[in-house]
Design a protein that fits this description.
Layout lengths: L11 E4 L4 E3 L7 E6 L6 H19 L2 E7 L3 H11 L4 E4 L4 H5 L3 E6 L2 E6 L2 E5 L5 E5 L7 H9 L1
Parallel strand pairs: 3-4, 4-5
Antiparallel strand pairs: 1-2, 1-5, 3-8, 6-7, 8-9
Helix pairs in contact: 1-4
Length: 151
Amino acid sequence: MLKVGDKAPDFTLLSDKNESVTLSNLHGKKVVLYFYPKDDTSGCTKEACGFRDNLPKIETQKAVILGVSPDTVESHQKFIKKYNLNFTLLSDLYHKVAESYGVWGEKSMYGKTYWGILRTTFIIDEDGKILKIFEKVKVAGHAEEVLASLK
């Protein structure tokens, strides 16, 4: 499992704009890297809208937001359009990046177990080191919590 102070694993994923985004290319900026289970589900929508609403304040801290889920680029495009999201979503179709960050794990719902994204947010500093990790994220107030930790 990654911990504060570790170098964030580099990756390249396709964005909602169908362009490659590489973490190391964001050197010099703080990155809010949040992993979420699925586009257009209640908790994930609340979390995304929280980041959307706080983006101007987050940008004043010289930070960018990247949301990562195993959804397709097309799914991300619909999600962005439906909720007027103003930041980049990345498609981790085969959950390789989620695995490298230790956020792909066993979950359970209604007595059934399955594998999926463990809702987690990483704040990565300008040099690519992990500044903060939010595990088992509670959606309500999360964007504000992230903003406070950027200051």
